[in-house]
Amino acid sequence: MDISKIDQIIDKHDGEASSLIQILLDIQSEHNWLPKEALKRVSEKLQVPMSRIQHIATFYKAFSLVPKGRHQVHVCMGTACHVRGAQRVLDTVQEVTGVKSGETDSDLKFSVETVNCLGCCALGPVMEVDGKHHGNIAPSQIASVLNNCE
Amino acid sequence: MSEINLQIDGKEVVATEGMTILDAAKSVGISIPTLCHHEKLEPYGGCRICTVEVEVRGWPKLVAGCIYPVEKGLVVRTRTEKVDKIRKVLLEEMLAHAPDSEELKALAQEYGADRDRFEKHPSFCIHCGLCVRYCAEIKKKNAVGFVDRGSNREISFIPEIAAKECWDCKECFPLCPTSALQAAYVLAGALMTPPEEAHSGGCGCSCSCGSAPEKQAG
């Protein structure tokens, strides 16, 4: 991890303690997770106690204290998707990526997560990869979608 | 300071501005149970065991006595059927965490709470926040804090700070109504090396291999 990158992010927000969440979000999008050294640096520079940072970092689901993959795969398990075969989609995703829901593969390529509703039930079953929605997805199409990810 | 007249359990009480219902009740010898309240700390209103019924312009409502400021003409009732029931259920929920806490047991007896009503939880913590706030407000060390949220919320020591500060302090221990703190501390203690060993570099885990740190490092 590059500590100067963290300093840059902190400076971008003028080292304001009130920008803590914004800074954490920037670090999260830079590294895909919040490394401990980064949080220590933020704590020192912003004069915010580590316990507070830990509280916030564990409160919001947008933050991760463990490394996440470069590609975030979300499989919708909402009611509409469920009745349209979300379980089969999830099974296939788990098979292709080799990890279960909530896990990250060893190459840090994919992180698989189930979500309760993506808000586009008409497209069900839905899989979201890096913010892009794949509606009406058939298990047979999943491998090609995921293999397109670098 | 302007004086404020209000009524608590039928008693006329003269309070000053800025006092809470709890303060006003205390001044006339009416006791309201509290768990998360501490005189030296900022009001928190977390445990809700101090819930009382107040009447504002004829409308009754339930408020937390330890944070509700006194108002002119306020009518407060500290032991209505509704209030007692709320305290009873709250106690039952807390007893699911800490069935053997003396403080909770005494209150449970008074309010007829059944300690076995809810399924037991593995954590003793009832989230009163006394340790967290004491460490932050009085000691200004922030060695212990909350993590996670909702039903998964729990207290957690920051090992780096706890290893330095907690050994000689432990002032938060007697504050804890359920001894959750001691449990968390023992857990954190297992994860950190005591100061005199800190430089020798143990493996940092809770297993017995800490006794042979050199082997681990090699």
From TrEMBL, chain A:
Its cofactor is:
[2Fe-2S] cluster
InterPro entries, from UniProt? NADP_DH_HndA-like, NuoE-like, NuoE_dom, NuoE_N, Thioredoxin-like_sf
User: Which residues does [2Fe-2S] cluster bind?
Assistant: 76, 81, 117, 121
Q: Does the keyword RNA-binding apply?
A: no
Cofactor binding annotation: Binds 1 [2Fe-2S] cluster.
Q: Per UniProt, which keywords does this protein have?
A: 2Fe-2S, Iron, Iron-sulfur, Metal-binding
> Pfam families, per this entry?
2Fe-2S_thioredx
For molecular function, the Gene Ontology terms on record are: 2 iron, 2 sulfur cluster binding; metal ion binding; oxidoreductase activity
Q: Which family does it belong to?
A: Belongs to the complex I 24 kDa subunit family.
Q: What is this protein called?
A: NADH-quinone oxidoreductase subunit E
Q: Which organism is it from?
A: Geobacter hydrogenophilus
UniProtKB/TrEMBL annotation, chain B:
Q: Which GO terms describe its molecular function?
A: 4 iron, 4 sulfur cluster binding; metal ion binding
Q: Which InterPro entries match?
A: 2Fe-2S_ferredoxin-like_sf, 2Fe-2S_ferredoxin-type, 4Fe4S_Fe-S-bd, 4Fe4S_Fe_S_CS, PSI_iron-sulfur_center
Q: Does the keyword Zinc-finger apply?
A: no
Domain spans labelled 4Fe-4S ferredoxin-type: 116-149, 157-186
Query: Which Pfam families does the annotation name?
Result: Fer2_4 (PF13510), Fer4_7 (PF12838)
Entries under Gene3D superfamilies matching the protein: 3.10.20.740, 3.30.70.20
* Residues of the 2Fe-2S ferredoxin-type domain: 2-82
Q: What domain of life?
A: Bacteria
Q: Which UniProt keywords apply?
A: 4Fe-4S, Iron, Iron-sulfur, Metal-binding
Q: What name does UniProt use for this protein?
A: (2Fe-2S)-binding protein
Query: Can you name the source organism?
Result: Geobacter hydrogenophilus
